[in-house]
């Protein structure tokens, strides 16, 4: 077997609307409703399905828990532009720009938290 790419992932959240507001208003993702009134966040060719804590869809993770994810997103803007947007939304930084290693090599990242306290890494590859 050879995995081609990640298609979607699932986040269990305390408040779907608060998560939609954050991911759409701050991070620019598109919110959609599908199937049996399920909610998803779209960006690029990927999506994040949202499950309401206590009302998860089957099958699900063994112990779905809000705030247990660490997610890294590659952004198109410079990190200075991203930090300006975060400042406009009163989103504090967890960590100033720092060097990390992404899936394709060296990245520069900043960190924030979503409404469930998931760690969100926003990154750029050099010469992007």
TrEMBL record:
The keyword Glycosyltransferase does not apply. InterPro entries: Glyas_Bleomycin-R_OHBP_Dase, Glyas_Fos-R_dOase_dom, GlyoxalaseI/FosfomycinResist, VOC_core. SUPFAM superfamilies: Glyoxalase/Bleomycin resistance protein/Dihydroxybiphenyl dioxygenase. The keyword Lyase applies. Residues 5-125 form the VOC domain. It comes from the Bacteria. Keywords: Lyase. CDD domains: GLOD5. One of its GO terms (molecular function) is lyase activity. Transmembrane segments: none annotated. PROSITE patterns: VOC. PANTHER family: GLYOXALASE DOMAIN-CONTAINING PROTEIN 5, GLYOXALASE FAMILY PROTEIN. This is Lactoylglutathione lyase or related lyase. It comes from Snodgrassella alvi SCGC AB-598-J21.
